[in-house]
Amino acid sequence: METKLLNTDDESLRLAGRLLREGKVVGIPTETVYGLGANALDTKAVGDIFKAKGRPQDNPLIVHISELSQLEGLVEEIPELAKKCAEQFWPGPLTMIFKKKPIIPDTTSGGLDTVGIRMPSNKYARKIISYAGVPIAAPSANLSGSPSPTTAMHVFKDMNGRVPAIVDGGMSAVGVESTVICFEGDSIRILRPGFISKEDLCEVTDNVLIDKGVLEQLSADAVVRSPGMKYKHYSPTADVTIIDADADKFRAYVSEHGDSETVCLVFSDSDCEGTSLRYINYGADSKQQAQKLFDALRQLDEIGAKKAYARCPEKTGVGLAVYNRLLRAAGFQVIKL
Ligand code: TXA
Ligand code: MG
Prior knowledge:
This protein has about 325 residues and is an alpha/beta fold.
């Protein structure tokens, strides 16, 4: 199959919408990462997403809407807290888990009786969804296990020949996937951290919990609330280790343990000063790190790194999302100095 790259003029967005309506899988830009979209209500189309990604069948997909009015038709009930979150954070990088209506096929929900819904803030994404005229199921548009794509070229690398079209909407503004939350009485539980941080959610309620799976490794047979958290994820070929240390200790550690096949992921050019090591600067603050992390992980493969040492991100605000993704890329290897 030939994969067409589409731009964001209205005609192209309408074409993307039509392909989706006809049951095709299309790569679409969102503010978080690129998604691999299909009609969320069409079992066959959704099945094709799983095939294109090589994704395990029990890992549910997020359903994307362009208007708040679409929500009611998809979910059994909308808790008060969810209404408040929608008011505060939609459109935007927040996915909320609801009890699903039967109209959502089991293939979309990975066999669960719940469904994650999000209204993206990216204007191209919302136009494509509204031209499609149906809710759009979309996981990140990477091959299962690889870093999520933040440019159309990343999607093209993974999906060339597997999908008929990819819409190029430029670099994703946020760079890490949406925050995934569920509701438990008057509490919010964060299943996956993202740009909407715990601190942001605390504006809606004081009771915000971070699920154990966010920072700990779960065994493959563990019963988890968010199936995606148990799979190997975001992994470059290089063996990644997080070094939790200040710049001086980081520099000392990597000069002692690094070699010509090592690449460092750093916050500043000075982090590797005086060493002969190659490095990728993935940003000085959490927002920049969120935007650049996945590209940096992909670059490790492109330059043939065998080993990577990454400076440890802040664990607050959007930094928690960066840390969560990097932890998985590192297979939970952290050295604290
Ligand atoms: O930002 C994003 O959320 C991107 C863009 C494309 O919107 N999408 C994305 O989808 O990251 P995906 O499939 O790569 O990740 C979805 C995550 C998985 O960890 C999945 O297990 C979890 O959300 N999830 C989806 N539905 C769920 C549900 N009903 N209950 C619990 N977790 C759910
Ligand atoms: Mg993903």
